């Protein structure tokens, strides 16, 4: 049954005897009202068939799809049973039920005789608790509609975290009442001088609410002490002058203090560490962000702070991780922060080096575990969605060991990246999309699909080799079968030549 178009691969799939279930207008949905509404929309979008409800007057003899929360099994797990006379989807919780419905949507098959679902039994649960995607809205701004469309796409593949990169050298995107100049003076900026934008607090709340409706947690990031050139435009007293010796210009303009930066180079900016004004600024922005964010995590960046002396960097990481912990949130930082030594207990590290770690990266990642935290894996040469899929791609970059094919995006095992990390030390997997070249939702689709599906499988499915079908050959077949579903969901995915697509 691993030939079915199921991505991410479920933990257990078993063929059942008998004919398929016929999906037509006579079918009725019973059970959980919220889940029933999700299923109704998904079936209507995929097939044009509008299913009825069990309380309809003519429903006494109708075939049923029962969707219920039964409280059985681990968090986010579900059971799906399809027979010719009915379908049952049972979730351990509301999230599990939602994921069971997404799996059901992948099973719907069209033919000349109508829409059907094959007879099958599925018992499924996630490998990792944290299954994330990241959208960089600082390099290029993406409005609320684009963000919500992106998170819907991710949720359909069982991702449960949306990490928003809300600040960088180019701009600060989230309105803060405590520091209004951040957006007033910088939100118009973007790479290449393109149009900018900002999220009001109402916008931010609407993204969080939409994410919650799709069982996703929003993790906001204000990146510091590096990646803070825009902060210096708004509040020059807290920013150091650009440090240009040895910085990575990436072929772009040279940054000038107080002027908008439109390039994509990194490593030149820093906050003034140890100043009272800087400490007050950091406290203001994270205190307000914590109050705005119901989720458990706040990300404070910590990457590519080449303009910050190592001792100052360590002092900043210690102080900022402790501040976030004092606000009742779990700090997250990119793996470089592991060099600091005095992380707040429980701080989570996000590893972004390669599948084979660059020098020192593994040690820094392990430091988070030593401090009582865990690690999120985002190896850049496997799951950075902004890398070109091949040399001919119009969008994307190639710094992470060249273009990243779909096969390379799939052929890695989370437990094998950082030596010494146990399964329990890994919080999960996140696939970031940096937006130096990404301006629209179509651009997002062009770079993320189909490689986002490979990241989904790394985050959800059993380890490589632990389940039948957890192979590249199976995956490329299964993902090819999702072509019709993605098309009806209006996902503008490129037809990768690595896949034989069903269209």
Automatic annotation (TrEMBL):
It comes from the Bacteria. The active site is at 304 (proton donor). Signal peptide: none annotated. GO terms for cellular component: membrane. Keywords: Glycosidase, Hydrolase. GO terms for molecular function: beta-N-acetylhexosaminidase activity. Residues 128-462 form the Glycoside hydrolase family 20 catalytic domain. Its EC number is 3.2.1.52. Residues 5-125 form the Beta-hexosaminidase bacterial type N-terminal domain. GO terms for biological process: carbohydrate metabolic process; glycosaminoglycan metabolic process. It catalyses: Hydrolysis of terminal non-reducing N-acetyl-D-hexosamine residues in N-acetyl-beta-D-hexosaminides. InterPro entries: Beta_hexosaminidase_sua/sub, GH, Glyco_hydro_20_cat, Hex-like_dom2, HEX_bac_N. PANTHER family: BETA-HEXOSAMINIDASE, BETA-N-ACETYLHEXOSAMINIDASE. Belongs to the glycosyl hydrolase 20 family. This is beta-N-acetylhexosaminidase. It comes from Microbacterium imperiale.
């Amino acid at each position: 049954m691993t030939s079915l178009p199921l991505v991410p691969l479920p933990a257990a799939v078993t063929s059942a005897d008998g004919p398929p279930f016929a999906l037509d207008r006579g079918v009725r949905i019973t059970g959980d009202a919220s889940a029933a509404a999700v299923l109704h929309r998904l079936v209507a979008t995929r097939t044009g068939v509008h299913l009825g409800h069990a309380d309809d007057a003519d429903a006494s003899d109708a075939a049923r799809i029962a969707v219920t929360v039964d409280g059985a099994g681990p968090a986010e797990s579900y059971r799906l049973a399809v027979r010719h006379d009915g379908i049952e989807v049972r979730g351990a919780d509301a999230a599990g039920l939602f994921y069971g419905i997404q799996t059901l949507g992948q099973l719907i098959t069209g033919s000349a005789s109508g829409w059907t679902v094959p007879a099958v039994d599925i018992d499924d649960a996630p490998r990792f608790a944290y299954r994330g995607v990241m959208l960089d809205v600082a390099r290029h701004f993406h409005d609320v509609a684009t963000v919500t469309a992106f998170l819907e796409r991710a949720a359909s593949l069982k991702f449960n975290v949306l990490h928003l990169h809300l600040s960088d050298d180019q701009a600060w995107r989230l309105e803060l009442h405590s520091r209004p100049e951040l957006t007033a003076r910088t939100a118009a900026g973007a790479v290449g001088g393109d149009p900018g934008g900002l999220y009001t607090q109402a916008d931010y709340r609407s993204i969080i609410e939409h994410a919650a409706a799709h069982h996703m947690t929003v993790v906001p990031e204000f990146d510091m002490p590096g990646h803070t050139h825009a902060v210096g435009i708004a509040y020059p007293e807290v920013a150091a002058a650009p440090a240009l010796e040895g910085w990575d210009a990436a072929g772009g303009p040279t940054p000038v203090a107080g002027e908008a930066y439109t390039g994509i180079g990194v490593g030149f900016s820093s906050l003034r560490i140890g100043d009272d004004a800087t400490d007050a600024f950091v406290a203001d922005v994270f205190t307000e962000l914590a109050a705005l964010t119901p989720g458990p995590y706040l990300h404070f960046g910590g990457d590519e702070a080449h303009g910050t002396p190592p001792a100052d960097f360590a002092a900043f990481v210690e102080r900022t991780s402790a501040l976030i912990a004092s606000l009742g949130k779990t700090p997250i930082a990119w793996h470089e922060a592991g060099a600091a030594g005095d992380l707040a207990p429980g701080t989570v590290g996000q590893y972004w080096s390669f599948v084979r770690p660059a020098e020192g990266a593994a040690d820094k990642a392990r430091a988070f575990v030593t401090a009582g935290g865990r690690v999120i894996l985002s190896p850049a040469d496997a799951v950075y969605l902004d890398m070109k899929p091949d040399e001919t791609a119009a969008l994307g970059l190639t710094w992470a060991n060249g273009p990243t094919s779909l096969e390379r995006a799939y052929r890695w095992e989370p437990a094998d990246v950082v030596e010494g990390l146990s399964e329990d030390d890994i919080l999960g997997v996140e696939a970031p999309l940096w937006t130096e070249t990404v301006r629209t939702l179509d651009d997002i689709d062009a770079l993320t699909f189909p490689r986002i599906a490979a990241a989904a499988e790394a985050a959800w499915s059993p380890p490589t080799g632990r389940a039948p079908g957890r192979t590249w050959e199976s995956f490329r077949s299964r993902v090819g079968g999702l072509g019709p579903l993605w098309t009806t969901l209006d996902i503008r995915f490129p037809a990768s030549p690595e896949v034989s697509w069903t269209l």
